[in-house]
Each structure stands twice: as C-alpha cells, then as structure tokens.
Amino acid sequence: MTTRNADHPIDPDFLARWSPRAYSEQALTEADLLPLFEAARWAPSAFNYQPWRFAYALRGDANWDAFVGALLPFNAGWAQKAGALLYVLSDKQITAPGASEATPAKWNSFDAGAAWAYLALQGAKRGLSTHAMAGFDPEAAAKVTGAGERYKVEVAVAVGWRGDAGDLPEALQAREKPSPRLTVGEIAFHGALKG
Question: In this predicted structure, what is the pLDDT of residue 82?
C-alpha cells in the first residue's frame, strides 16, 4: 500500500480516503448507508437548493441486477462485489429564492459533486470503501433510477467493505492502491492560471 503524504498540514482523513475496486461481497444494510447520506445532506449548494439525489440498491435486493446492469462491463466486473451500488443524480431545475417558476440549474453538477465528496469522506471514516464511476450507460442508469427528464445521472458509486486485491483481474491488481495527486502548485494559482 502506498503511503500518501501531504505537502501542507491537512486532516489525515483526506489522505486515508481512496477508491479501491476490490470488495468483499459482504452485504450492507440501509443502516450502513444512512450515515453516508446524512453527511451528503450537509454539503454546500447554490441558494441552499441541495440538488443532489441518491438512488441505491443493496447487494441481492430486487434492484441489484438492474443497477449493476446499467454499468459498463468493465466496471460491472468488479463493482458487482460491492455491498451497495448507488447513483448520484442532480436536479436540472431550480426555483431560486423569490422566484415562482423553475429555471434551468447551472451549478447542479458542481453541488452534487460536493455531496459526493461528503459521502465519500463519511464512508471512509466508517471504514467503508467508495468508488465513483463515470462508466455507465446513461439511458440504462436513467431508467433504473427514475431520473426522467428532470434529473441528470452524474456518477455511479460502489460502496462496501474492502476485499482482497488478489481477487481482481491481474491488470487491476497493480492499480489497487491510493493514487498520487498533482502538487498544490500545479492546481492553485495566485491570479490567472498558468500553462
């Protein structure tokens, strides 16, 4: 396992969270997930509109096969061993404070991303692994989640207890470790972006 080191002082929870693909196949319960949704609930959002929504299935329940089936085969291969699979959606409409009619939202994806980050950190604090995936069929995911025209399916997320990396296909085993990050100097600029 690669040890991550911060260049500046931060809470160690940020370094501990990463996105494994090896899951134990141990079931999760709704009670296991509710604290993650509770954490996501407190994420910041434009106008406090809270556009995020979560549709989820627990391993072995009536929704499981459809939720896994909406993933692209590469992701379904490893994510099917997670204890839960959820989709993060965002409301594409907003009724701004003082307005009486909804208009197209502009920051829904950004705000849903903040909620996902809160969810992921809470999962890590509880010993759960989370792995967000863009690799899903948008039409199938919209169907299984009931997104309709109003909601955008942002990502799928595998949630569960970490499993043995040796159970993954060989090509994925080498990637089963925390990934590195760009330096602060590569992502934060005093004034205009450079490069």
Answer: 97
Average pLDDT, the chain: 93
pTM (predicted TM-score): 0.92
The whole-angstrom distance between residue 62's C-alpha and the CA centroid of its chain comes to 22
Helix (H/G/I), strand (E/B), else coil: 90 = strand
88 or 174, higher pLDDT: 88
**Coil, helix or strand for 38?**
helix
d(CA 133, CA 155): 6
pLDDT tens for 127-156 read: 999 999 999 999 999 999 999 999 999 999
In angstroms, the CA 159 to CA 68 distance is 12
Which tokens go with 165?
């990396």
Chain position carrying tokens 């959002």:
45
Bridge partners of residue 52, in order along the sequence: 90
Give the helix, strand, coil percentages of the chain, each rounded to 5.
Answer: 35, 20, 45
How far, in Å, CA of 136 to CA of 39, rounded?
25
* 58 beta partners: 84
Among 58, 25, 52, 16, CA closest to 37: 52
* Nearest-angstrom CA–CA distance, 184 and 195: 14
Question: Residue 109 class from Cβ within 10 Å (0-12 exposed, 13-18 middle, 19+ buried)?
Answer: middle
Report which secondary-structure segment, H or E, holds 154: strand 151-160
Taking alpha carbons only, the member of 90, 60, 74, 56 closest to residue 159 is: 56
